[in-house]
Amino acid sequence: MLALSLIIALAYSGLAWHFWRTRWRALAPAQPRLEQITLTTTLLAHGALLFYSFVSSPIFGFSAGSALSLTLWLSVAIFWAGGFYYRLDGIQPLLLPAAAFATLCGALIPAMRGFQGADLPAFRAHIMAAMLAYSLLTIAAMIAVLMSVADKRLHEHTPHSLLTNLPPLLGLESLLFKVLGAGFLLLTITLGSGILFSEEIFHKPFQINHKTMFTLIAWFVFAALLTGRRLMGWRGRTAVRWTLSGFSLLLLAYLGSKFVLEVLLQRQ
User: Fold this and answer.
1) Is 151 within a domain?
2) Whole-prediction pTM value?
3) Of 11, 75, 216, 250, which one has the fewest beta carbons inside 10 Å?
């Protein structure tokens, strides 16, 4: 399946280059219909690849590569669906290269062992909540990056094609907090299910380790940001900094720990 993974990664990369030229640099006209067809086809192919990988695998396990691939596939799927309701131009050059990289990681870093009890409803609910939370918070981080770029351009008073193709800064900020709210709710469910049903899901009592610590700190960062937004009107650069800080902690919590264990130490 490496060949198909490479084709999908190239398709994501080609789309990213196209959106960079048409949205960020305005070097060519946009082609909405062709863009939608190409992105939909690539997304479906990536989904089929993930489904086949999980179904055909003799073990059920999430390696760092497969977790990253699934998370970015969900991120692209959420972005694709959200495009029917919100103006999201400008995110593609950030999101699609990440999806290309994740697709290759999914093919090159296989799971080394499976999970016991992977067929349990509690386990599946926990994993689905976690993947959706990471996907939404990935999109939130990319919206925060766009806000930072747009804010810098506005303060420099320099004309840039990116500003004309993005939603208004206040619109991006409003979208950021909607995505953060949904992602935070799912992250709360993920943590809650992991703590309450640790014995059933992981076959061992809940314990504090580096992964749990980073996730809890990230949860508190997002909780503080959403509380600060409601009570003190936090916005702009403050929202961007807190969003990217929380997202970085999540990367360290899950993908960072899995990469170190599986790729560097060759164990799970």
Assistant:
1) yes
2) 0.87
3) 216
